[in-house]
Amino acid sequence: MRNVILLLFLEKDSKKVYFNNPMWPGEVHSLKVEKILYKGKSEFQEILVFESSTYGKVLVLDGIIQLSEKDECAYQEMIAHLPLCSIPSPKTVLVVGGGDGGVLREVSRHPSVEHIDICEIDKMVVDVSKKFFPQLAVGFQDPRVHLHIGDATEFLRHAPKGKYDAVIVDSSDPVGPAQELVEKPFFETIARALRPGGVLCNMAESMWLHTHLIQDMISVCRETFKGSVNYAWASVPTYPSGVIGFLLCSTEGPPVDFKNPVNSIEKLEGALKHKRELRFYNSEMHSAAFALPPFLRREVSALCHSSTSTLPR
Amino acid sequence: MRNVILLLFLEKDSKKVYFNNPMWPGEVHSLKVEKILYKGKSEFQEILVFESSTYGKVLVLDGIIQLSEKDECAYQEMIAHLPLCSIPSPKTVLVVGGGDGGVLREVSRHPSVEHIDICEIDKMVVDVSKKFFPQLAVGFQDPRVHLHIGDATEFLRHAPKGKYDAVIVDSSDPVGPAQELVEKPFFETIARALRPGGVLCNMAESMWLHTHLIQDMISVCRETFKGSVNYAWASVPTYPSGVIGFLLCSTEGPPVDFKNPVNSIEKLEGALKHKRELRFYNSEMHSAAFALPPFLRREVSALCHSSTSTLPR
């Protein structure tokens, strides 16, 4: 890879072209493009789909890789099953974002679930996924799924208090439109929409790159969620630094022990039968995801304390 | 990152320049270079040291990133403490490769260790590390450390049978000179040099990219090591796909339960005092490292079976 490094170093415009993302300055992960399959511009963002040489099809929004067929299993399975396996028989679930349908595919594995709302702001993402990512968009085919195209904060403001057992926030990075999705008012509307002892799983960036952003999210959630606040992470090669984190919170009510799932997926009737195999998630990976390296524990320890929290007191 | 992807796509020589590493075709991870600090060519490889803009100083061998100051803690701490915390009071340790000294720095935390041999083939790596990576090369300052410059297979052939409690193989990827380090004769010389119930920790590539290579290493080790054979992994952002694996094996003798360390680092007298803090490893991360995603379990399940193995029967 030395060639690349030197090339970037010597190129005058390398800063501008290569290393310009404020979320991960100074590095870039490139996938070889075999074929551009789609390029479009929605009301909200630029959408690109390409066939990569080794990661399958790839979805790119505003220049940022959102998912690849090779490793989407890690993100989708973890963000869905970390919360849903942590509470007994979840019935009503809200997915915020997740227009590709992958999270729906995983939520649908849970036989106890009766109603799934999804609020995605960009209809074009749904349409593009249905065309190019049938293995993810299959999630929309479940009759329990109700698609709402619109702004999530708006949707949550009008949601009945205590309606949901679980809310899963599968948003893009908090730059531009998704900025408000890491702010207190947003988390407050989620807490309001959750039943007592209900759970939130929120995409929470990289422990290697975004410690301060994670601190901010945790401290906001500590104020908002009176149950427990926990941080977990998973390996996702196509995300910057190769990991993605999840913030898991519960509202006041029946305590939730996120690290020891009460609703083990291996025991769920029909969670795996006649469906594609789980590729990344199992009960062992669930518990392991809450193990945090000392460098992260030290950063967040000041903020987090809870009877059932896996974060240091 | 879309710009980069398209740029590579449009460049005629992109294949040649960017995506040419047989270990991870079709992708490249680039770090922005602030300043080239050193470029040299040893008898064995090209050595490059540069100051990156966000990962600190970086060591590159034959164009492949070996370590960065930002994330070396994950690799060095895991490859050293996974084996040494899995056996009671290790005394004699051999490090193969590891010329930067980082593994020695971590092995030295163990007060029970009396003798540390390190066999590194390339003296220039040691010299470069002492000059540019003092935080790693500090490992050479421990009086228990004995540096041997030479070929590891040769060194092991002359090692007394059963001399070592633990052997740690911190090698580069098995292309070119390091090829023989994944072959049966090499593992046999290691098994011979280990005491009964002694342990090997061998760098074992990426579960996302090298499943077949991992299968091969596991199957060779199953034949060679009559105790247990286990696979663990850790997050290392600057390695391809953001993870690195470790093959943990024990020889016939007192059984070793790698997943439940008997020699917890938190209880080790002086393991942390007057030393830099552990950044990535703790007992919780140790056990969590053995949790494997289903896609990997399915691949390796045919090969692995052992009373104390964490791999599926």
From TrEMBL, chains A, B:
Residue positions of the active site:
170
**The keyword Disulfide bond is assigned to this record:** no
Spell out the protein name for this chain: Spermine synthase isoform X2
Q: Does the keyword Transferase apply?
A: yes
Sorted keywords for this record are: Polyamine biosynthesis, Transferase
The gene that this protein is the product of is LOC103333625
Instruction: Tell me the Pfam families matching this sequence.
Output: Spermine_synt_N (PF17284), Spermine_synth (PF01564)
Q: Which family does it belong to?
A: Belongs to the spermidine/spermine synthase family.
* Residue span, PABS domain: 6-251
Under the heading SUPFAM superfamilies, the entry gives: S-adenosyl-L-methionine-dependent methyltransferases (SSF53335)
Which source organism does the UniProt entry give?
A: Prunus mume (Japanese apricot)
